Amino acid sequence: MINVNGLKKAFGKNQVLKGVDVFVQEGEVVVLLGPSGSGKTTLLRCLNFLEKADEGILTLDGQAVNLKKVSSREILTMRRKTAMVFQNYDLFINKNVLENVMEGLIVARKVPKAEAAKIAGDILHKVGLTEKLTSKPFQLSGGQQQRVGIARALALNPKVILFDEPTSALDPEMVTDILELMKSVVKLGVTMIVVTHEMEFAFDVASRVIFMDNGEVVEQGTPKQVFGNPQKERTKQFLSRFTYTKQPEYFL
Questions:
Q1: CA torsion 24→48→92→10, rounded to 10°?
Q2: pLDDT in tens, 79-111
């Protein structure tokens, strides 16, 4: 589904990604963990071309592009296969809930307005926002705004959804609500790459966990492998800061 080889990205003299290799199979949920500044969000933004990578090859759904020489047409084609959910929602403040979800369908996918409204309405019903269709973002709670963001991504029916710390801007009581919604998305078989510090979510739904530090992939494996028996000292140091509710037999 997605194959990234040798992805590099620098901002000035700061080399944020140092040749990252990542492979994600169709239907997988891959969780990216790591300290702040490790390159997780930059990796997602490069995959969605919100940032232009300096080097690397990206293969998505059978199409390969050279990230250093990628054309505008190739970017457009690749973007149509992905959708992104942002930590700060990134909604259009002048549009209501229905219009926010319709926008990508109309502008990026050229879907007729009436059809876009039908698709958006159906998706918003599934995420529990039927009564908020005409509300503006400022009239919604943080959790409701993130539901709109997830609905917007789902409406595009992408090959993969990229989640950039989708619960980090939420009040603690809203975090569980959004994580439960994400778990329901997982059950749809959607391919997902998720940057998060929500360890229980990674335990419960990740196919694989990738630990990044200092712009590199340090370690990866199943949740049981990475959380239960990390092989790298840096991984052990990072995970030692978290308290787990899983019982020891979970890791056997």
A1: 120
A2: 999 999 999 999 999 999 999 999 999 998 899
In this predicted model, what pLDDT tens digit does every residue of 200-212 receive, in sequence order?
A: 888 888 999 999 9
Residue 71: which of 41, 49, 44, 99 has the closest Cα?
49
d(CA 230, CA 202): 15
Query: pTM score, two decimals?
Result: 0.93
The mean per-residue pLDDT over the stretch 162-183 comes to: 90
Mapped onto helix, strand or coil, the DSSP state of residue 221 is strand
Provide DSSP, 148-179: HHHHHHHHT--SEEEEESTTTTS-HHHHHHHH
Cα–Cα distance, 148 to 140 (Å, whole number): 10
Provide the b/e sequence for 45-66 (b: ≥16 CB within 10 Å): bbbbbebebbbbbbebeeeebe
Tokens matching residue 119? 């698709």
According to DSSP, residue 179 is labeled H
SS3 at position 96: coil
Q: Which two tokens stand for residue 88?
A: 């700060």
Neighbours of 94 (CB within 10 A): 9
